Amino acid sequence: MSSPQTRALRINMVELLRHPGSERTIEHEISAEDLGCQLAPGQFEISGDVVVGVTAVAATDDVAVSGLVAIPWSGECRRCLKAISGVHNVDFDERFAPARDRDRLSSVDGDLLLVEGDQIDLVEPIRETVMIETPTSVLCSDDCKGICDVCGVDRNEVPCECVVVVRDDRWAALDDLHLDD
Ligand SMILES: [Zn+2]
Ligand SMILES: [Zn+2]
Question: Domain coordinates of the chain in residue numbers?
Fold first, then answer.
């Protein structure tokens, strides 16, 4: 799982920690395949390279890496099935520390990601971010009218006269409710 694509997402942590306050910025585009993303059924397709723009900042004991991960996606509107696409920008914010400092650090902070060796490898946390954040269900607009169940027209484009009786199960509980008070 090491290629020039994934190597670009490594940060030399030891070097950074030698100079608290020092920074390193990574701007990198990487395909979902190179990241090793496997999306769940129902998730939208990732339609292009994932764009990573993060800055690593060294403190005395740990390195904070924060920035944005932009996921381009495409798919169909859940209601009207129109092709839609967009870019989902996700905040990335993690802190890393050397695993050899484990004993000293564990009392301080449970949110640190411990790193074996000298390099922070962002592939895994970014892969997880992309797999979790790639949208599963999106509407083309909040008030998409969807497709008519009776005649099949896209009701956003063609109004139809069909009468559709929609029973909303959320109200079913009210049928059994007797307001005796
Ligand atoms: Zn729609
Ligand atoms: Zn209709």
Answer: 4-133
Ligand nearest to the CA of 146: 1
* Per-position b or e across 124-140, b if 16+ CB within 10 A of its CB: ebbbebbbebbeeebeb
3-35 residue pLDDT tens: 888 899 999 999 999 999 999 999 999 999 999
Measured in Å, residue 134 CA sits from the centre of ligand 2 at 33
Are residues 106 and 113 in contact, defined by beta-carbon separation less than 8 angstroms?
Answer: no
Find the ligand nearest to 142 CA.
1
How many angstroms does the Cα of residue 145 sit away from the middle of ligand 2?
A: 11
The one-letter amino acid at 84: I
Ligand closest to CA 81: 1
pLDDT per position as a tens digit, 40-61: 887 899 999 999 999 999 999 8
